[in-house]
Amino acid sequence: MTDIAAPPQGARRFGLSSAEAQARLRRRHAAEARFRAYGIGAIALAAIFLVVLIGDVIVKAMPAFTEYRLTMTVTPTLEQVSSDGTTDPQALRSGDYDAVLRRGLQELFPQVTTRALRRKLNNDLLSSGAAMTLRNRVLADPSAIGQPVTIEALLDDAADLYLKGLMTGRRESVGQGQAQVTLDGEDVVLTSSAPDFARALAEVKESLREEAAADRREAARLTAAAADVAGDQREALQKRIADLEGDAAAAEARAAAADAPERLTADLPSKLVFINGGIVKLTEIGASEARGTVLVPLANTDAVTAGGWDILTLTQPEANRRLDDQVVAWLEDLKQRGMVASHFASRFFTSGDSREPEQAGILGALIGSALTMLVTLVLCLPIGVGAAVYLEEFAPKNRLTDLIEVNINNLAAVPSIVFGLLGLAMFLNFFGLPRSAPLVGGLVLALLVLPTIIIASRAALKSVPPSIREAALGIGASHQQAVFHHVLPLAMPGIMTGTIIGMAHALGETAPLLLIGMVAFIVDVPGSITDAATALPVQIYLWSDLPEPLFQAKTAAAILVLLAFLFIMNGLAILLRRRFERRW
Amino acid sequence: MVSLFFLLIVAVALAAFAFGRSRGRAFVGGGARLHSLPVYHGLFLATLCVLPMLVVLAAWTPVAPRYVEARTLAALPAELAPQTTLEKEGRLREARLVALGQFAGTPDAGTTVAAGAYAGARTEAEVTLLVLGLAGAAAGFVFGRRRLAPDFRARNSFEHVTKVVLIACSGVAILTTVGIVFSVLFETLRFFARYPWYDFLFGLQWSPQTAIRADQVGQSGTFGAVPLFAGTTLIMLIAMMVAGPVGLFAAIYMSEYATPRVRAVAKPVLEVLAGIPTVVFGFFAALTVAPFIKNVGESLGLSVASESALAAGLVMGVMIIPFVSSLSDDVINAVPQSLRDGSYGMGATRSETIKRVVLPAALPGIVSALMLAISRAVGETMIVVMAAGLAGNLTFNPLEAVTTVTVQIKTLLVGDQEFDSAKTLSAFALGFVLFFFTLALNIIALRIVRKYREQYD
């Protein structure tokens, strides 16, 4: 019994203290540390991605939560706002409120007289929603007709973006010397006692150099691309490359001549000079003087002391932005007069979709989602719980129930777009249900989340101990009474948690809704489950496709709203679990 | 109208319940000994009244719109009878709008006539629904009332109905599968009747644009799906290259190394990631990741498509990380502790134990987790719709734009479509391929899991 197995012949002996063994151990420990670092790295990567994703959405969403409005006083007259000269609401509804706003703008800028400028003033400054605001105001209080009315008119999206600083970079520099203003026909000539204009000229030369460098980079890229193509395409590319090289050479030549005056064309950054209460757009800069056109008239041509005038540089060239220098000058003028200000954009939450980015809101999508979720909940909660109760409590172990179980597990993994195909072929084409309706969306989503709810409900039912069931049966309850009166109520918190998680999943689902036509552009807020509607995630998809920057901001803002709802729902599920879950 | 009918159902149910229960109570008052509680008499009667109404509604829903449509079209004068599907749908839409008083403008004579017929047929259909529904309810009521008696086994009858309803609820899962199979199968067969299946499965060119006019040339539409399968595979591979290692390492760290404090932070991170809707990932891929990759690529002198497969694949990979990690976490935790203890007892370090003992033991489970993740990546729609391209390029260069099966299904089916063109039907053929591919992956994965579990339980 005390035999100790002799070491097998030829076995290697490992010394634990030899240098070789120490080195081996160090290697193994290093491998251990590396392996552990990979794990930490993996989790850190996921966390970083999450932070970047949410941070990116928040940053992109910010501009959508504010809007700039112009506080203006207008006087609506009866003949303008009423189509038949009475204050009948029907007549007031079809009045020409744009005319009232046009006159109001005219009063703000009385010096604008030419047709082209007037059209620009009328079209580029205010949103078409401003007339709506005025109309609602007049409809609410017809006695305001003929009286001065102060309204907050929504600005057009381009103007709004400019004021939010998203359209172009702005650089302001205060004039260092004493400025002299001389009129020269239509133009204004400015001189300064300090080298203000020399510095401005140097900036222009710098942008020329940058432009030349960008052209050269593009040419190099195209040269590389041209190697891969042949024939006509290649010829076109080579012509384009030659043009780019020519442009770059010309720009470099201009930049090299340090003191030569420059004309500020539309493809160079704009420079606006604020002086004597007016705004001058520089057209030509020399080392000591600058020449420009007047965008907002000057009060006088007196000399101005150092610090009393500014040069504003708009880094995005006029040719590359939607708002030209004239409108920028008007906006700057209004800002100085304190008439435009930023407000919270409550419109985003209270209006439906619109083609105009500044007027678009998510109310329609929210209501559409709510109606869809209502249909989904009404359908999938009873069916899901019913199926779970049957499978868990009553089903005999046979082929059919096995088939059902396999089915449920497989349905849980079917791609969501396939449910869209089902909705399209079955509900729309076979049953003839209305397209784009929350009813059909809810039906499809109900089928989609049904497996989730069944699986969660079964788990909840299974966790109720058999003693409850047995006690009920023991005092004479029928099997169904035991289940419906005792087991099901105890399983309810778990079922509710599973349902909420399933509904959160349904709320974020997009693909099946696309196929059943909930992607239409719908302005009206849906009133019933058979009206055409869209849903929040679909609205996000639709807006993300649009080119306007403000729509992108609204997309991000809509995402934040969606995420907020999901967090609330998941939080509620966690709360329910913490509060009511019982460990038996 | 249908909502009104639902209200009617509720009202009938309540009335029948109240009547049945009062009958039951009356029996008790009469001194009789009841077999079932009065409540069950009420429930029994209510069920008998409601069931016929639901049956009538279910039969009416698919039939009524067809009837209304046929009557509307029949009312049109012969010279205005629509020739094409498009014309027919336009006419019906106008007639509906005129009938509802929502038509902007003045309808022409044909539409006015059709609108009259539409309104008439609609009223007829609604009256039919009401009459049939109420008749059914009345029949159920009469039948049930006659059976109510003190010794009537109302509870057993009601429980019998309940059981049937419960079975029907579980049957919905089977019905859904059958519905999916049939809805894609029929359209797919119709597609293959027009377009040979081998050209679809093995053709190298995908250009689904069909001729709008008969005299157009070069617009016949070819449906070779190989570029789509290649694009789907490319994006799936990129996604799995991200999700596989990251998800697996995250799972290993969470189950083998993490202290409870770390787990309390890391687990919610992965759960939040799993809860973010795919449309949000799509937005991020299209507006942030794709331009970033394009800029980086171009500064390195590469030509990168603005809808590169790389952007869609990377973001999709991140989306799948929690999926891989939670499934792998489960299988790693299922490896018995005794195996680990044995390995530690031999002097192995933790990482050696994981690499040589835990992972080989969990391998079948991990393989099935990766297969489920692949099926998820292949079926994912919104990320690729927003961030991948539309043109079917047959390429494996991740910097170029490729398209996927799901993108094409969405593109072919969104917007106005005529339901009878090869273009529309091809989307169902793609859906068919997608459904059976993912189904096969899932079944295999679940088999592997089940087989593996039996070893240790």
TrEMBL record, chain A:
It comes from the Bacteria. One of its GO terms (cellular component) is plasma membrane. GO terms for molecular function: phosphate transmembrane transporter activity. This is Phosphate transport system permease protein PstA. Residues 198-254 form a coiled coil. The keyword Transmembrane applies. One of its GO terms (biological process) is phosphate ion transmembrane transport. Keywords: Cell membrane, Coiled coil, Membrane, Transmembrane, Transmembrane helix, Transport. Residues 366-573 form the ABC transmembrane type-1 domain. The chain crosses the membrane at residues 37-59, 362-391, 411-432, 439-461, 481-501, 556-576. Belongs to the binding-protein-dependent transport system permease family. CysTW subfamily. InterPro entries: DUF3333 (IPR024573), MetI-like (IPR000515), MetI-like_sf (IPR035906), Phosphate_PstA (IPR005672). It comes from Chelatococcus daeguensis. It is a multi-pass membrane protein. It is found in: Cell inner membrane; Cell membrane.
Automatic annotation (TrEMBL), chain B:
This is Phosphate transport system permease protein. Pfam families: BPD_transp_1, DUF3708. The keyword Cell inner membrane applies. PANTHER family: PHOSPHATE TRANSPORT SYSTEM PERMEASE, PHOSPHATE TRANSPORT SYSTEM PERMEASE PROTEIN. It is found in: Cell inner membrane; Cell membrane. Part of the binding-protein-dependent transport system for phosphate; probably responsible for the translocation of the substrate across the membrane. InterPro entries: MetI-like, MetI-like_sf, Phosphate_PstC, PstC_N.
